[in-house]
Design goal:
Elements: E1 2-5, E2 10-15, E3 24-31, H1 38-41, E4 45-48, E5 55-58, E6 65-69, E7 76-81, E8 85-93, H2 95-112, H3 115-148, H4 151-163, H5 168-174, H6 179-188
Antiparallel strand pairs: 1-8, 2-7, 3-6, 3-8, 4-5, 4-7
């Protein structure tokens, strides 16, 4: 997100970036303000300590990168700015928390709608969960294969598949290799078959 405060005592009230578990874990703010002087320009980011009430004012100097937790541990506000103030904000997301945040409206809709609509919504929810689990399984399969195979193993496997382009799946089946692992093997040897 790119933010421009136009000056004229513009600020942003005290808040936390992720009060409700939307997946944001880490906030990163990069400042683009040349020759900033907080005494004359204002516009500092005030970060509050949740536990002991301490507050810190951070001047939005050019090329300053600020990182902090996005949840309730770091309430913050932008103090009134007297001149244009620029910042780029990025968030690091927790994949599982983000997934749960996206699924929650479907779950609520299932509770609030008719039985027939509930079935449709729950089926879509199950489908989304299946896709997420399959993607997770695939990532873990590829990671496991890469950790298990030596460079020589990868070369030998690549040679075997290239020598038998029409029946490589049968060969791998013959070794008892599951289809998900077969795909991971192919990705490891960088073949598009």
């Amino acid at each position: 997100m790119v933010a421009c405060y136009p000056g004229n005592h513009t600020g942003y009230v005290r808040h936390v970036d992720n009060p409700d578990g939307d997946g944001r874990c880490l906030t990163a703010i990069y400042y683009l303000n040349k020759d900033w002087d907080a005494k004359h320009d204002g516009g500092c980011l005030r970060v509050f300590s949740q536990s002991d009430g301490i507050r810190i004012d951070i001047q939005p100097d050019i090329n300053r990168l600020l990182m902090f937790w996005s949840d309730r541990r770091n309430p913050h506000e932008v103090l009134p700015s007297l001149r244009e103030r620029y910042a780029i904000t990025l968030w690091y997301f927790d994949q599982e928390q983000r997934y749960q945040a996206k699924v929650s409206p479907y779950q609520e809709a299932a509770i609030l709608t008719s039985d027939q609509q509930r079935v449709v919504v729950l089926a879509e929810l199950k489908k989304a969960q299946k896709v997420a689990l399959e993607a997770q399984l695939h990532r873990k399969s590829v990671e496991s294969v890469r950790n298990l195979l030596s460079e020589d193993d990868v070369k030998a496997l690549s040679k075997l598949i290239r020598q038998h382009p029409d029946n490589w799946r049968e060969i791998l089946d013959g070794f008892g290799i599951a289809p998900s692992i077969q795909q991971a093997l192919l990705e490891t040897v960088h073949l598009n078959i």
